[in-house]
Each structure stands twice: as C-alpha cells, then as structure tokens.
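Example (one chain per record):
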Amino acid sequence: MKLLTVGDSFTYGDELEDLLDAWPYVLGNAIKYQVTNLGSPGTGNDLILQSAIDNYEEYDIVIIAWSHFARIDFHDYESEYTIWPGGNLTKWNDVTLEHRAELQKYIDKHHNDVYYYHQYIWKVVSLQQFFKSINQKYIMINSFGNNVMHEHAPTEKLKKLIDPTYYVGWPGKTMMEMVGTNIPHGPRGHFLELGHQIVATRIYERIRDLGWIS
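Predicted structure:
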C-alpha cells in the first residue's frame, strides 16, 4: 500500500535532524504504508495542487497539507519560485534576480489577503471534488496560517462546499495549533520530532475513523 504526501516545509520536515522523523514517515510506519513525501520548503498552494494532480496515480491515500494562503507561486526562465507578501522568503524568492525583486515589491504593495484566501478555498474545493469524482482516498490538513482568515473572508458559499470529514482540523486548527507552543521548535519556528508525532497521530486517527485501516 502506498501513501503520497504533498505540502510545504512542515511536511518536508524542515529543521529535523533526520527527515525520516517527519510526520509522513511516522504516519506511514503506523499504517504500514510505503511513503512518498513530496513536501518542499517554501512551497505555495499552487504548486501543492499541481504536485497532487501530477502524482496521485498509483497511491492508495493522498494527504495534502496546504500552506499559507498568501504564498503565491510563479515560474520564470530560472525556475519555479514562491512569493509570500510580507514574508521573509529571500531564500526562495532569490531577490538577486532583479525582476523577482520588482515582483516582490509589487505584490507586497498591492496584495489582498481576502482575495488570496478566496483562491486557496477554490483550490481546496477543486481538488476535493476531483478526488471524489475518481474515488481517490484523500485527507487534507493545514500547515499554518489558514485559520486566521476563516472568520473574516466573505467565502461562506465556498466554505460550505468543503467536506470536513476529509479535512483534519477544519476550519480552526492548523498543524501549529494542534501541536501548540509548549513543545520544542527550531529557530525558524518549525516544530520538531514531538510535533511531527502529534500531527501523524491526528491524521492516523482520522484514517482509522474512516475505516481505511483496521
């Protein structure tokens, strides 16, 4: 049996001494599934959606760990990259490239959180409906930040389309809230081994409750 996980640095296992301690592998060991972890630091939701669509085939369960709603993904002649308005993502933006620095400044000045939250909800609903249409087993979860806008963004009709049965923590708890602040975190704010164990347990419990494992 095969498990596919896609997400950002919290799925990748950033700041862990051993990436095999990241929650996808902890979960895979618990349910005895072979794991392919496509988590990637700094990734936004466009690329997470693309990765899920490009790679879901031949996997028994796909887990999508959505990143912050305001991360925006772009491609240019150099590579793909992510801009996070107001976020210090110089490592990922590569602002030594003049056109990327110009785009960062423009997005910082003109972005709108409500708009980007709306786009995030559209991605969630679209992927949910696609997976349901092909009977693909999936679980969704938020890494961080996506609970902040839930009560403020005028997307009620869209939010009602989200099936919380397959969305761990929807709407108010991201991985960060599930883990809490009283356990070890790295210097850049990522929870460490204990946090990954907590996240894996929450997803395991949902998979078990759905009857996908005995």
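Caption: The chain has a mean pLDDT of 91.
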